[in-house]
Design goal:
Elements (H helix, E strand, L loop, with lengths): L9 E2 L18 E10 L2 E9 L4 E8 L6 E7 L13 E5 L18 E7 L11 E7 L8 E2 L17 E10 L2 E9 L8 E8 L6 E2 L17 E10 L2 E9 L4 E8 L6 E2 L17 E10 L2 E10 L14 E8 L12
Antiparallel strand pairs: 1-20, 2-3, 3-4, 4-5, 6-7, 7-8, 8-9, 10-11, 11-12, 12-13, 14-15, 15-16, 16-17, 18-19, 19-20
Amino acid sequence: MTIDAWLTPYKRSEPVLVGSGEEGAFDYHAVDCPFVFRHNGRFYMMYVGYDGIGYQTALAVGDDLLRFEPLSTILRRDEGSAWDSRNVAGTWMLRDNDLHGPGTLKKWNGKYWLAYHSYPGEGYEAGSARIGLAWTEDEELLEWHRLPEPILTPEEGEPWESGGLYKECLLEHEGTFYLFYNAKNQTHGRWIEQTGLATSTDLVRWTRHPDNPVLRVTPGAWDGGFVSDPCVLRDGDRWAMFFFGFDYKKAQEGVAYSADLLNWTKHPDPIIETGQPGELDASYAHKPSVIAHEGVLYHFYTACRKPQKGDRTCNFFPEYRTIAVATSRELKEEQRGGD
């Protein structure tokens, strides 16, 4: 089955968003986990910042899809309940499902909804994360109210997810909510991450799919260690799941497809590979967010390479971690995707 309509071979050489590099700022070390959407005539990116203590979530805004300016943090430390007071990584807002649609948010019960996960400890992905939801009626999307309890925890899951639950993708289809998420089987050593599914009709009571994980690693392949960070959108009579695979050396983007949101077939090869030494994504090209505009598909992802002189930020690995984009057509300077 052809996947040509989902390919974005034209990488932009410059990042679309970089951390501040300002000591004490939430994004001092890095930015991560883009989620790009359209709202009230502008483009927004929800993203995660890391400051050396943990994760917080922010919005950036732009009038095109190639430049974003930080707007405000929206999920902050020391807010919410005890379980999510140290880290809060927002990864998805309920949006229209159409891959080629406008990418706008949609409401349920008069509210916008956001899915996030939280690690219990301080540091980089410290402890077993749980998944929560937040909502807002604020059209500026700045004031969010978190549900007091997590909706999914590793303690209630199967062994494949006992190490923690991570990057969420939340969608509604024909009256059912689908929550795709990746999870790991242990917290230490060389763990395996795979992608599972839970469903709900009210966003409160969730049922895990009996055949989880719905997307599994391929032993010995480019995705032999992780199949993670699902981004699920509808293209006609097919659903596409963009994800990243990891073989404990390189992280690269892939895609799977389904007719029913339950049974998935992976395309065997990466659709975005890591770059050449020195390029933005020389180490990792991972964590997809996909949106279409004016007939062009924009595939945003977290890009990592080794630090270079002049970099504004440096993550602790060490690495330079930024947000990058690849497109389905090569864009000229005047075709920057504005309204």
